[in-house]
Amino acid sequence: MLEKFEKKFCDAHFHYAVCRDFQPDLKVDWNALSCAHSFEEWEIQKKAPACVKKAFGLHPQACLQPDFDIKKYADFLEGLLKAGKNTIHAIGEAGFDYFTPAFREKALLQEEMWNIQLELALQYKMPLVVHCRKANEKLFEYAARLKKLPAVLFHSFMGSFVEAESLIRRGIPSFFSFGKQMKNGNKKVIECVKKLPLENLLLETDAPFQTLKGEAFTRAGEIRLIYEAAAEIRGFKEEYLVQNLQQNFIKFLNF
């Protein structure tokens, strides 16, 4: 499979179904993992070109949707998993979001959603994409089970380098992805990008959501700007980073 990814930028996390400007002929040599979180998003996402690998998950923020049917979504996810690796390539986003009081009030529901997806990931031996805001303690609480997965992507990781290093030491097959926070001067992100072992690093746009000040949205093709920022922080040539992170992307998705 390596030749299919040769010399390509890899966007570890974006949202194909809600990218307003997406064009299949983006002027970037590119592979990506897209996450969908509704049935409608999945229907759009499954029509994406082959360069877009596909994930589906019960996003923790769905806990505030009054009509969210956890069983219906869990059954849909398991149906995709039963269809096999040609249908779905990862589970996620799954995780915890305690960013606001309203989210924190739904902590038990978030944990139920998380456990369903973690069990499915273990059962079907699937990579897991993790969303975690203001809840890093939960990652350590579940470390013993996370280490049994084939791979875990801590998307848009907002913890410290010490926390990231500790997750790796616990035996979790960890990847940490970062995006425009590097260009926002986020000190924790910059330290992680600079110090994490290269084999644990990935980059992402989180398009269209993760933006810089004054931006309305992020384009999927902006992954090249993320690589430029990371190469400067690491002191690497961009080509060297592309080569190594494509290997990480392949390893994460188990191609």
Structure report:
- This protein has 255 residues and is of the alpha/beta class.
- It is 39% helix and 17% strand.
- The protein is built from 10 helices and 8 strands.
- The chain has helices at 39-45, 70-83, 101-104, 107-124, 136-141, 143-146, 161-169, 187-195, 223-234, 238-253, and strands spanning 9-14, 30-36, 52-56, 90-97, 128-133, 152-154, 174-178, 201-203.
- The chain has an 8-stranded parallel β-sheet with strand order 1-2-3-4-5-6-7-8, sandwiched between helices.
- Helix 2 runs parallel beside helix 4.
- The longest helix has 18 residues, at 107-124.
- The termini are close together.
- The model is unreliable at 1-5 (pLDDT under 50).
Element layout with pairings:
Elements: E1 9-14, E2 30-36, H1 39-45, E3 52-56, H2 70-83, E4 90-97, H3 101-104, H4 107-124, E5 128-133, H5 136-141, H6 143-146, E6 152-154, H7 161-169, E7 174-178, H8 187-195, E8 201-203, H9 223-234, H10 238-253
Parallel strand pairs: 1-2, 2-3, 3-4, 4-5, 5-6, 6-7, 7-8
Structural class by SSE content: alpha/beta
Point out poorly predicted stretches: 1-5
Return the average pLDDT rounded to an integer.
93
Rg estimate, integer Å: 17 Å
Largest sheet: 8 strands, parallel
Strand content: 15-25%
Instruction: Note the total helix count.
Output: 10
Q: In angstroms, what separates the terminal alpha carbons?
A: 6 Å
Total beta strand runs? 8
Output the keywords.
255 residues, 10 helices
